[in-house]
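Changelog note: in this version the structure field was regenerated for every chain. One regenerated record is shown below for reference.
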Amino acid sequence: MKESVFIKSPSKPAIWGTGFIALDLILSGTSKKSRWLWAGGTCGNVLTILSFLGWEAYPISRLNGDAASRLVQQDLARWGVHLKFAKSIPSAKTPIVIERIGQKPNGGGPKHQFTWLCPACGSWVPGYAPVLVSAAKEIVKEIKDPKVFFLDRVSPGALILAKASLERGALIVFEPSGVGDPKLFGEALEIAHIVKYSHERIKDRSIIASHPNPFLQIETFGKEGLRYKSRLGASRTRGWRRLEAFTVPRLKDTAGAGDWCTAGIIHLVGDKAFSGFKSLTLDALQHALRFGQALAAWNCMFEGARGGMYAVRKNEFKRDVSLINAGREILPPKTSNPASVPKRLVKTICQACVDL
């Protein structure tokens, strides 16, 4: 892989997106029982990674006021994500996801588990609240030159934003975690150019198969790699094609691997919007898919969905991703994990704990 994939022009491409943006609480049982609080969620991770890669990223969400929202905003801002549209009204509690990292028995390697129960008091933490139609109608007036629009949850407000971006020439990328409302799901499939989904998450794929509209479908299988199917003129495939996953020297955590893969693909196919995407050659498409897989493999060497961004320098990241993509061996990174947050800070993100 050429170093140039990391170099962007002075005029940075813009990605807008809405969907699952959350506060991740990572509880590690392997790194001296550390705790970290980072911005997360599929949409949150994809846009933050793309900002890290040189894009202008504009999340559209309801991060407006509670303690968790302030921590998410601080972390997004650290990575250069634009927050102008991240605080739409009415207010909503910020979703929280708890990831527990441990070890499988008998030396079976690392494992992780997601939960939505506060580790301090056992209460349910908040879930996802979509941007409302009223807010979406105002925000569409502000969307300027979108190269890509990303969504991972369907709602009337999300579809208004996606359709407006489509009309302005954006590449529409849809990464569902489930079907939810079949009608809204079908509407998203009608306008999406790329649909990427996990084999584990989308059990019934008949609804996707019944919509011929997406130009590119990507189905991921974790450590078994992915398969893809394209109906673009220059990169059309005869049915599905398979790409095996990369291996890494030290597996620490697979959380967030799919988000890194998505960001890598968007990075190489989306910077010229839909007009550039539709002229991709098959070689260019496969190069983008492999770059996404290389990013995913690199991230699996760190704990947390974006843990590597906090653990190594950017030049180390570029070097190791380039080596992985070239099929060459790399040494396990000498990570410097960020400081663990204190227990008292964890309690401030749970309203039930605050009310005790």
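Spot check on this record: The chain has 13 helices and twelve strands. The mean pLDDT is 91.
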